[in-house]
Amino acid sequence: MEPSGTAEAATLLAQARRLVVFTGAGMSAESGVPTFRDALTGLWEQFDPRALATPEAFRADPALVWGWYEWRRGAVRRAEPNPGHRAVAVMAARVPETVVVTQNVDDLHERAGSAAPIHLHGSLFAPRCSACAEPAPVPGAGEEPGEGRRLTPPRCGRCEAPVRPGVVWFGEALPEQAFEAAVEAAYRCDVLLTVGTSGLVYPAAEIPQVAARRGGTVIQVNPEETPLDAVCAVNLHGRAARVLPALVRGAWGDAAAPA
Prior knowledge:
Blueprint: H1 6-15, E1 18-23, H2 25-29, H3 49-52, H4 55-60, H5 62-78, H6 83-94, E2 97-102, H7 108-112, E3 118-119, E4 128-129, E5 163-164, H8 176-188, E6 191-195, H9 206-213, E7 217-221, E8 234-236, H10 240-252
Parallel strand pairs: 1-2, 1-6, 2-3, 6-7, 7-8
Antiparallel strand pairs: 4-5
Helix pairs in contact: 1-10, 6-10, 8-9
């Protein structure tokens, strides 16, 4: 049985002309990508993930932090996009003025067919120099650690400083260009679909609120209640991998929906 409000949300989606799809950790968790709240394994069991995701941690022990992020990147490479990711790509194909904005640092939206999603928190697949910010090559698929181990980061080809993961750490600002593009899209959209995000991580959590303040219709897909419930026209309590394909079917018919 689909969540109450699915038919209403599908109608709103079918009528959308400028759509924003805003996704959080709940979307990728359904593909098996560990979140910060998940139990860690191997070497990483003894660490608090929040203590590894800081500039200070990287300066103090680059090999420890680089190794942890390479372990995370390996987990993403082994994961596959789920039907929710594929449904988002269908939405973008059906609503040409669609902008996908994600808080996730994986590449599952891209692999599902979404072109150029905005990564508010950076990407595991965009390492850069820790000193000069020069983009660095992504290590090959065969170079990922297993359960996790310390790995000395590569050196920048331009200035020889250590290469760092291309993600936003605690205490760092969001990439200015990405955040401005996301705010602009939310400002202009008529429908914003927020999926699998807690609504607690700012300033990213401001994106749905921008749409609501500008008169856009906000639809939420999340198994739990969140602080965004109050600004949403429709709240669909369920998993993204199930609810998003149902929305596609309701909006454009069974033939459009991903498996």
